[in-house]
Amino acid sequence: MKFNIATIPGDGIGPEVIEETILVLNKIGEIYGHEFSFQEVLAGGIAIDKTGKPLPEETVEVCKNSDAVLLGAVGGPKWDTLPGDQRPEKALLGLRGALGLYANLRPAVLYTALKEASPLRSDIVEQGIDICVVRELTGGIYFGERGRKKEGKMGEEAYDTEAYSVGEVERIARTAFEIAMKRDKRVTSVDKANILESSRLWRSVVVEVAKDYPEVALDHMYVDNAAMQLIRYPQQFDVIVTSNMFGDILSDEASMLTGSIGMLPSASLAEGNLGMYEPIHGSAPDIAGENKANPIATILSAAMMLRYSLQLDKEAQVIEEAVIKVLEKNYRTGDIMSKGMTLVGTQEMGKLIVGEL
Amino acid sequence: MKFNIATIPGDGIGPEVIEETILVLNKIGEIYGHEFSFQEVLAGGIAIDKTGKPLPEETVEVCKNSDAVLLGAVGGPKWDTLPGDQRPEKALLGLRGALGLYANLRPAVLYTALKEASPLRSDIVEQGIDICVVRELTGGIYFGERGRKKEGKMGEEAYDTEAYSVGEVERIARTAFEIAMKRDKRVTSVDKANILESSRLWRSVVVEVAKDYPEVALDHMYVDNAAMQLIRYPQQFDVIVTSNMFGDILSDEASMLTGSIGMLPSASLAEGNLGMYEPIHGSAPDIAGENKANPIATILSAAMMLRYSLQLDKEAQVIEEAVIKVLEKNYRTGDIMSKGMTLVGTQEMGKLIVGEL
Ligand SMILES: CC(C)[C@H](C(=O)O)[C@@H](O)C(=O)O
Ligand SMILES: CC(C)[C@H](C(=O)O)[C@@H](O)C(=O)O
């Protein structure tokens, strides 16, 4: 099969980690008889520098006409003083909106080989962590109406609107239940239904969708309690489904519990098969170009791409297993280095993973 | 001096922990020559049972005419099936609104004697945790306009409004800076200014207020990052100031990091001296009436009351020191029990603390 992949290396360490990921994908193509055709496009700071805009139209066009999008990282201090709508992050929001990427999957997995990196007490992470946060990504307060009013409650007022409609909740809930069916069949829907009207709608729709998945156990949790329970007893969660804003917070919190942000991939899915895949870490400008970045999160993002956009489940698994093998052979990049391990650079890590495919 | 304190024992373990706290306050009165006059009023489930309403008008009146309000806990499964606006939690929201309790102080302190209870790795909590979250409590999405629209983006839509005006941010920022002046002189303002208009207003007002506190170091952090940083390195925070919604989440997260929710007090302050003081734990109906509840969080809430509403700083400190002494003598209620310690009940714990005053 032939697949068209749009790549957005972006800023900082983005280009380096994408490079290793392409090598991994090419090797997978070679072994399993697929052809990946990569088309590199601009977004983020580099796009600002070259075109004046964080997200050129051409980028959106190419992404729309691809089977999937692979992104490195965008942003950096160089562009932090620009006004809000010209900042590199606008590229992410723009892509989410333009491509209709309504479902953000954020697995938080603690690898046995990296258990010690978790900030949690060893008895709490004894049984590992394996949570998938399913964050709604094109609705809620991120995309609601906002503005200013001269005469507010106490002087000038600024407002933002958290809004959810039935269809939006329905599709994200369905995504969460489908994913739970392939995992431990437990969904926790997180909301603030004791306060928010949008949460009450959210909860009632999730309850309806759940009826189509009788095998999945559903429970509901308030967001403040979820922020506590994640730390207290992370194993109580399998799939967490929640709004854009709560998902932003809880997915990052869950990631931190694993202690290795450099390991964690993400997928942002549209209806149909299109998806955008990227590591959750940032552009790390301080180590950019030094062959120090950990390419694993991006390589695991490519595995998610194979699974969710290209329907290459087996190939995805082969990549994930290769990563585990390399970790078990004690190779580590700087960010996950610990005593007695072998320190390797970005390129060496890429090669080691290719070698295990 | 004579002080009028409204007490709201509420539900579950509420009455038991309030009882011990009154004994502590009476002893303080005896030693330092103050008179505390307590007037008990109804709120929460017990108010629903007796009056049909979670927050009777009489309760609001009595609280308004008191020097301070001391609350045990409200809520429980018995009332969980009631419609939203008749639920026990409405009493809390109602009191916050009616009394104008705009500033919620949520100290998250890890006591040396209870270090092991923290879910964090011991090397992370080596230097302890001592954070004060200052949460805005009468604005934002909790009190904004909400409703439904038949024709939303994808079917029926529900919406809530996050709104902040200059004066609201100004006063909560000022509270945070004042508190920081008495602590380590560091304020972290948490927002989502890369997305929300209300956060951009928030940030600009905080920056203005900061000019009046040149000794205080101010920094800004996005809420998703704050949720991670709290876990990774809690000592980087002194005072966190944030919106109602973000404060709800982050204050609970910070509390959980200490591992002993039964120890943590809170204060909710109005302009002037009025304040409401309550433990952060819930009503724990499973152990209600069994002399098992930990009264320390409520006793420490009373200490905050002495400090913030009654200007009795020294007396507040005496209570806090008494609590530490009892812990150092290895007395523990069930929730903070560990090997080698002496298990005591609610009443014994109260007596022990009275004994150390
Ligand atoms: C960059 C920012 C707009 C973004 C968000 O809040 O969605 C980021 O935090 C993320 O989670 O992808
Ligand atoms: C009971 C609920 C309305 C309340 C809130 O969200 O404010 C609680 O979670 C709290 O933090 O005091």
List keywords for this structure.
homodimer; 357 residues; alpha/beta; Isopropylmalate Dehydrogenase; 2 domains; 10-stranded mixed β-sheet; two-stranded antiparallel ribbon; 12 helices; 40% helix; binds 3-isopropylmalic acid; leucine biosynthesis (chains A, B); 3-isopropylmalate dehydrogenase (chains A, B); metal-binding (chains A, B)
Alpha-beta classification of chain A: alpha/beta
Label the CATH architecture of the largest domain in chain A: 3-Layer(aba) Sandwich
Query: Cofactors and ligands present?
Result: 3-isopropylmalic acid
Structure summary, number of beta strands of chain A: 14
Low-confidence stretches of chain A: none
Let me know the largest β-sheet of chain A.
Answer: 10 strands, mixed
Compute the number of helices of chain A: 12
Could you give the order of the helices and strands of chain A?
A: EHEHHEHEHEEEHEHEHEHEEHHEEH
- Strand arrangement, major sheet of chain A: 2-1-3-12-11-4-5-10-8-9
Query: What is the terminal-to-terminal distance of chain A?
Result: 19 Å
Largest interface: A-B, 62 and 62 residues
Main location (chains A, B): cytoplasm
Pfam families (chains A, B): Iso_dh
Catalytic activity (chains A, B): (2R,3S)-3-isopropylmalate + NAD(+) = 4-methyl-2-oxopentanoate + CO2 + NADH
GO cellular component, one term (chains A, B): cytosol
